[in-house]
Specification:
Elements (H helix, E strand, L loop, with lengths): L2 E6 L6 H6 L5 E2 L6 H9 L5 E6 L5 E14 L9 E16 H6 L7 H4 L5 E4 L1 H10 L6
Parallel strand pairs: 1-3
Antiparallel strand pairs: 1-6, 2-5, 3-4, 4-5
The protein binds a DNA duplex through loops.
Pfam family, one: EVE
InterPro entries: 5hmC_binding (IPR052181), EVE_domain (IPR002740), PUA-like_sf (IPR015947), THYN1-like_EVE (IPR047197)
Length: about 140
DNA sequence: GCCAACGTTGGC
DNA sequence: GCCAACGTTGGC
């Protein structure tokens, strides 16, 4: 199983909205970046991801699961853009902030730190474990 | 609100 | 195919 990170401005699409969608999940639509799209194409049903709030929060607030593989993005006619569906799994007991991530040398190589603008990114197994520990949240 | 970083677009 | 111009993102 692979791990990922999904970034969203809470004013556009928040963790609470994601939770409200329940087990049905929701399209991770609106991505107009090739790198991000390519990562979504690599995702499999059952892969897990962090849900990150950018802007004001700047923190990982929850864990999501991919519940549909990449398919055309329903918000555009442009067939270049695809997206997966994700559903909320559980919230973080304690949100893990960008500050914490930057201070932890085990997370120095995270894409979130190295390329802060990429909205969908891969997370390594080790990074996943470290962040779940920091958030005192079950990692499976 | 500013600005650096980065991706995309379009003219050549 | 290059690169300048432009738009967007997101941390500060």
């Amino acid at each position: 199983m692979a791990y990922w990170l999904f970034k969203s401005e809470p004013s556009t699409w928040s963790w609470d909205q994601q939770v409200a969608k329940g087990a049905e999940g929701e399209e991770w639509d609106g991505v107009r970046n090739y790198q991000a799209r390519n990562f979504m194409r690599q995702m499999a049903v059952g892969d897990r991801g962090f849900f990150y709030h950018s802007q004001k929060d700047k923190a990982i607030v929850g864990i999501v699961e991919v519940c549909a593989e990449a398919h055309p993005d329903s918000t555009t006619e442009d067939e270049r853009w695809e997206c997966v569906d994700i559903k909320a799994v559980r919230p973080f007991t304690i949100p893990v902030t960008l500050d914490q991530i930057k201070m932890d040398e085990r997370l120095d190589e995270m894409v979130l730190v190295k390329n802060s603008r990429l909205s969908v990114q891969p997370v390594s197994d080790a990074e996943w474990q470290v962040i779940c520990d920091l958030g005192q949240t079950k990692s499976d």
